């Protein structure tokens, strides 16, 4: 055993990424007295809320449930403008947090990490940036996000387009001029669906290219009144406890229905569905009948209710039918919550292109050719999603213990422990990674993970451990849980990005935590019940300061 000092590292904790999770991880590390630094690829902080600056980008989780809960002062002083805030306000909020807690001096922007190599003798990570700089760190928290690597459609000629072509997840800072322009939006997930109503108000023509119809329902946004803000402030402790409780599977505070569909008559159910249609955001799932996601008959009935809403809103019957999903139940794919989505198709300047009926042929210098013909555009919006869950981690040149190369090790799908660590990746945490979130309010899941990680390394410091690595058995137990519960997850549509199915060649493996927050807390509590975390904590060096 060699004796080392902390001169062996540049920082004790290196955080990669300054998004919602990375900012919190940095705050926890500084607060705990570690030397810490963040490397962020973007030129500003905010993560997804920095990159996804497309027009109309906004929360579909309530603003005050998505933000941080570690400071009542912060909670009180940030007066969210709307129930569901827009991207510019979210970016301002995250910058405010960084400044308020004096984190900016620890964050280096414009620093893309291209390699992370474990030095087993020195018990540290050597992290190298695109510019060739290396930072040596004892602990790494890779808060690189599950939705940070844009996925472009596999269409011939993408690079030939001479107009403006932008992915929603890599949107330019310079505002794009849509007035009077011919615009194609490819993709109708939450990003594409959010853009359509707003862009179609100003553009000359907008064509939405749809491969698969989605169950899109109204967001039901509203301004936040002073009265509501006062209520939020007065109830901070109760709200924080409710949202962060492991017993709250979704991280929302929507009131539960309190009943099963079978308890109501057919007429009562229709009346109830009308109420649900008016519920805010994810309330369509979380306030719906208890058995909505487990009782096929109930879900089919709700789908028929939604289909009739589409038929009643969209004037052209053929367009309405194209907009009604036929391949998945409500909730089986992550549904978008958008104002005026279906209404947009009644505008004279909006049309729907069904890629099922007329697939892509190619993109060329002037526009898009499908088997239905060629259309010219000034702007093409790629709202085609992300290499979900594993995209960032497998592109970062991560080399762990005993020759582990994460990009090849995960070729058949990721294998991890608790969605934030892996065997043979000592001292490397990736909160928000694959099998991390379970569906619902993402920051509530990743905050659980960051809190556990921060507590674990503080504990390790106190007890003289300097290595954390889940054993092969820990990882296998977690993966067995994923395999067992994935078929029961509400996000069961195997052609969704939650199975990696949107990226050609990506293995179809479930990428969420199907056990939810309850299972995460249960497994982590079990692990931390023993002094050395059941063998995951190791002391590799002599206590130099003993
Ligand atoms: P997404 O949900 O993955 O949707 C991508 C869309 O592009 C789908 O309609 C998909 O069609 C289509 N597509 C993908 N590849 C295609 C191809 N080769 N040809 C034609 N169409 C193709 O992506 P997203 O809308 O960016 O949303 C991703 C996630 O970001 C969401 O699940 C959500 O978690 C988050 N998000 C949240 C908000 C918010 O309101 N807070 C807003 C935006 C995004 P198929 O369905 O056929 O695959």
UniProtKB/TrEMBL annotation:
Domain of life where this protein originates: Bacteria
Official protein name in the record: SidA/IucD/PvdA family monooxygenase
SUPFAM superfamilies listed in its UniProt record: FAD/NAD(P)-binding domain
Family matches, as Pfam families: FMO-like
UniProt cofactor(s): FAD
Molecular-function annotations in GO: flavin adenine dinucleotide binding; N,N-dimethylaniline monooxygenase activity; NADP binding
Family label: Belongs to the FAD-binding monooxygenase family.
Family annotation (InterPro entries): FAD-binding_Monooxygenases (IPR050775), FAD/NAD-bd_sf (IPR036188), Flavin_mOase-like (IPR020946)
Organism: Agromyces seonyuensis
Alphabetical UniProt keywords: FAD, Flavoprotein, Monooxygenase, NADP, Oxidoreductase
């Amino acid at each position: 055993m060699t004796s080392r000092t902390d001169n062996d590292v540049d920082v004790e904790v290196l955080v990669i990424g300054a998004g919602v999770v990375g900012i919190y991880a940095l705050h926890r590390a500084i607060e705990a007295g570690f030397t810490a630094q963040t490397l962020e690829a973007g030129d500003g902080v905010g993560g997804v809320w920095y990159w996804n600056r497309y027009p109309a980008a906004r929360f579909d989780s309530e603003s005050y449930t998505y933000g941080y809960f570690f400071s009542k002062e912060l909670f009180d002083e940030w007066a969210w403008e709307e129930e569901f805030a827009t991207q510019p306000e979210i970016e301002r909020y995250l910058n405010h947090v960084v400044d308020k807690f004096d984190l900016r001096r620890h964050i280096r922007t414009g620093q893309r990490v291209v390699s992370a190599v474990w030095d087993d003798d020195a018990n540290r990570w050597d992290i190298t940036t695109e510019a060739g700089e290396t930072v040596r760190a004892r602990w790494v928290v890779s808060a690189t996000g599950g939705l940070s690597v844009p996925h472009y459609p596999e269409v011939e000629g993408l690079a030939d387009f001479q107009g403006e072509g932008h992915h929603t997840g890599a949107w330019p800072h310079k505002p794009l001029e849509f007035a009077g322009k011919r615009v194609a939006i490819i993709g109708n997930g939450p990003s594409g669906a959010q853009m359509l109503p707003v862009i179609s108000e100003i553009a000359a023509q907008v064509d939405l290219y749809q491969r698969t119809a989605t169950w899109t329902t109204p967001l039901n946004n509203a301004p936040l009144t002073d009265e509501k803000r006062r209520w939020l402030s007065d109830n901070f402790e109760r709200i924080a406890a409710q949202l962060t409780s492991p017993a709250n599977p979704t991280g929302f505070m929507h009131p539960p229905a309190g009943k099963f569909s079978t308890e109501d008559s057919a007429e009562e159910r229709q009346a109830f569905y009308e109420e649900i249609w008016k519920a805010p955001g994810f309330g369509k799932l979380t306030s719906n009948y208890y058995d909505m996601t487990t009782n096929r008959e109930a879900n089919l009935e709700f789908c028929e209710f939604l289909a009739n809403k589409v038929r009643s809103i969209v004037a052209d019957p053929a367009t309405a039918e194209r907009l009604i999903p036929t391949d998945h139940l409500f909730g089986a794919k992550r549904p978008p919550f958008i104002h005026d989505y279906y209404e947009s198709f009644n505008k004279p300047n909006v049309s729907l292109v069904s890629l099922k009926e007329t697939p892509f042929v190619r993109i060329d210098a002037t526009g898009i050719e499908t088997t239905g013909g060629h259309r010219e555009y000034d702007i093409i919006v790629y709202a085609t999603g992300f290499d979900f869950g594993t995209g960032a981690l497998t592109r970062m040149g991560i080399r762990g213990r005993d020759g582990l190369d994460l990009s090849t090790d995960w070729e058949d799908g990721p294998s991890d422990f608790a969605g934030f660590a892996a065997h043979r990746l000592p001292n490397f945490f990736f909160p928000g990674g694959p099998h991390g979130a379970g569906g619902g309010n993402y920051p509530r899941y990743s905050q659980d993970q960051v809190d556990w990680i921060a507590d674990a390394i503080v504990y390790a410091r106190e007890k003289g451990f300097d290595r954390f690595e889940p054993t092969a058995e820990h990882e296998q137990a977690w993966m067995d849980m994923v395999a067992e519960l994935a078929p029961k997850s509400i996000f069961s549509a195997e052609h969704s990005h939650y199975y990696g199915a949107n990226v050609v060649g990506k293995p179809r493996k479930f990428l969420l935590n199907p056990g939810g927050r309850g299972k995460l807390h249960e497994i982590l509590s079990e692990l931390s019940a023993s002094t050395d975390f059941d063998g995951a904590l190791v002391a590799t060096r002599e206590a130099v300061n003993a």
